[in-house]
Amino acid sequence: MKTTKILIIFCVLLSLQLQAQKYFTRSGITQFEASEKAFEPIEAINSSTTVLLDTNNGNIVSQVFMAGFQFKNALMQEHFNENYMDSYQYPKATFKGKLDNFSIVSLNANNSYDLNGVLTIKGIKKNIQTIVSVKVENNRIFISGSFYVNANDFDIKIPSIIRDKIAKQIEISINYELIEKK
Amino acid sequence: MNSLKKNKSFFIIFSIMIISISIISIYQYISLAPKKVVAIIPEYSGNANEFNYLVTDNLSYWISKVVQITGKVTQVNEDGILLNGTIYCQFENKKDIQSIIENQNIVVKGKLVGFDELLMEIKLNQCIIIQ
After folding, report:
1. What is the ipTM for the molecules in this complex?
2. Domain boundaries A22-180, corresponding CATH code
3. I want to staple B44 with a disulfide (CB 3.0 to 4.6 A). Which of A42, A159, B35, B67 is the partner?
4. B59 and B11 share a domain?
5. Which residues of A touch B116 (CB under 8 A)?
6. Based on the structure, what is the number of domains in chain B?
């Protein structure tokens, strides 16, 4: 009887411990850049990205709202939402993946990790493989990196008249500062 | 003859002026910066709980809309606040947050960017304090 009680208490404590192993942010920065040389810069920044990282196993999920991308130019922002991304039908892009061999204990100053996962934009899934830098400072986890995606992989139709002004390979950069989730 | 010549040159100068004015105004139009939240009339103003219900009902209608919400501050973070535990307001200017304390009633205006399924909350950005 006593041992079961102890076992139950141990399990409860363990589950509490496991729950406390999540880090997150609501204001991660995701940027993209699709400029071609000699043309107007095509870039936008989203500073409302939600990211959740499970430090027990390195699983990471993130979510970017299309309406959260801010352009310098109002017309460009309107075209992005209405013509290219169909933001009302597909309000967000998600990423589900894993930092390979992640361990918070062995993290010290600066580390590189392989990030593998599935990126979903406009309902279309695509595998992403990249290397990100991860560091811990004052109980905060900083993740940063960049990777390229193709516009036509995600059914983003670019009219022929401006096709030359938009890069085919779009660079996405991420910069997240995660705090412990209580 | 002379007056015809005069007319012609006047016409040329006039058309050049018209063309340049229109080019300048078209350029200004296409290079306009997006409107700030301050300058946009809110599509909705009211209580956080009621708004929560409206968004659950028809999310896509509210995306990108500017709204003004009255609610109780249930959490204060570095870059934003949580209203009634369900609406997260990310602030444009982090200094604004310093004056906010937990449990106070507040009116904020911001742009709805979506429903966050990871944290189960509505997300507004570019928020400003109204009251």
Report:
1. 0.78
2. 2.40.128.110
3. B67
4. no
5. 26, 50, 63
6. 2
